[in-house]
Design goal:
The structure holds 2 protein chains of 2 kinds. By secondary structure, chain A is mainly α. Chain A has 5 helices and no strands. Helices cover about 85% and strands about 0% of the residues of chain A. In chain B, helix 2 packs parallel to helix 3. The chains are: A mainly alpha, B alpha/beta.
Chain lengths: ~120, ~120
Amino acid sequence: MDSHTTTRADFPEIDPEALARLLRFGGAKLLADMITLFLEAMPQRLSAARSALARNDAHGVEYELHALKSSSAQLGALRMFRLSEEGERLARAGTLDAASGVLNELDAEMPRVHEWLASARERA
Amino acid sequence: MTTIAVVEDNADNRLLLHALLDGPYEIVEYENGSDALAGLRAARPDVVLLDISLPGMDGNEILAHIRADNSLRTLPVIALTAHAMTGDREKYLANGFDDYVTKPIVDETILVRAIERGLTRGGR
């Protein structure tokens, strides 16, 4: 386990209050629709970030992870938010080898986020 | 009716903004800068909510085009950003934005107050 992972383990993976907030903003339909859009976009963003990484396009990696950061924060996927934020920062600094490691962690986080949000959508 | 233009590439963020603002305001939406600049000239909104991280032209470039266009230059434009770093607010205001709202949106009244300030500033 590297030092970054140790640090991130201090953060909770999810923030249920974010989902409660979306319910307050627009009811069950908004919550369900937001989750559906996010679950569609999440793998697309990560795939696009991987493609950008393969062509050494630091700005492309930064752009995709910034978008993932924004959406995961709104939905309360806190660990995905932190990872995206870190990957975005590394890409902005041009350190793509390190950003590649964060993409691996995001790949591992994706099924957990999918399971949590799909379950929340069923309950909405 | 007061019209708010939303320039935002993330579908989930557009959906949330629509849910929060539709009703009191009429909402027009654009996913990128070129569509926005063409649409703003036609729609003549009262306030623009402008995401910073966009494909192609970013929010700062779009703002520069707005300020250089005689038909759009006085439009109140609010920066909408998930960057949220220290000093961002001052930086965006210095760039010519009228106001600054951070994502994720956790308190819709902050967004509405920024819009109302923009409407007042724009003489609406």
